[in-house]
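Annex B.
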Amino acid sequence: MKKIAVIGSGLMGTGIAYAASVNHFQVQLQDISTKALEKAEAYMKAEMKKAVERRFLTAEEEIESFHRITFTTSMEEAVREADLVIEAVLEKMDLKIEIFKKLDEICPEHTILATNTSTMSPTEIAAQTSRPDKCIAMHFFNPPHKMKLVEIIRGLNTSDETYESARQVAEQMKKETVEVNEFPGFVTSRMNCLIGNEAMNMLMEGVASAADIDKAIKLGLNHPMGPLEMADLVGLDTRLRNIEYLYQTLGEKYRPCPLLTKYVKAGRLGKKSGVGFYDYSNEVGSK
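3-hydroxyacyl-CoA dehydrogenase: predicted structure tokens.
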């Protein structure tokens, strides 16, 4: 495993590409949007500069890491020599299936296809390809180049060789891994959505303010981040898609909080829009 292609240059795709490049993989980062790629390139340069200032990278490693990344709008170019492709697009099953069908057609026979999903079925996605044994889910966490865990989720037909290759790639990226047998929401998303949704219900019911709910969870339960802060970071639209999927597959206890639905309809999506459960309008980079 030497060459990785990442499909989608949003926060997740960019972070995965960064983690791969600084850990000696050749990386092709693909997106249909030139503007998105330019934004990803600027973000990586800024993060690498910070890493040098904090002595996580040397100046020489910064230059070498950046030179290992290629930015392209062509999926065919991105995957031509890839040993592993990591799809990191929106949590929409139809979109993921469409991409996997195309990847199956254009990737070399040996290429492993991984989906970075927090909830969705790698079995269902893999079934649309001619290589279900080479399909797997690798759930990175936001931000991917800083968070330590990768959940590796086997589909029904995922081979042991594919799992082992995915595990080794994650470990070379200096991640800890857990092996998960497919079930909706895996391990972390089931818990995270449940806690976050209950926090939103408490806010809607007037139990406490957003700040005090988050403070209680951080100090009382020793979570590093409050559930409402976490939802703002992930994106409330993303969180809503995730919990709607869990509601459809796991039932009533995952019914989305009406306040979450209302915020998404209003365009209050969290950090990326400048306002969610908290106001980020004064932060650099907020819209």
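The chain has two domains: 3-181, 187-273. Residues 34-53 form the longest helix (20 residues). Further annotation is deferred to the next reporting cycle.
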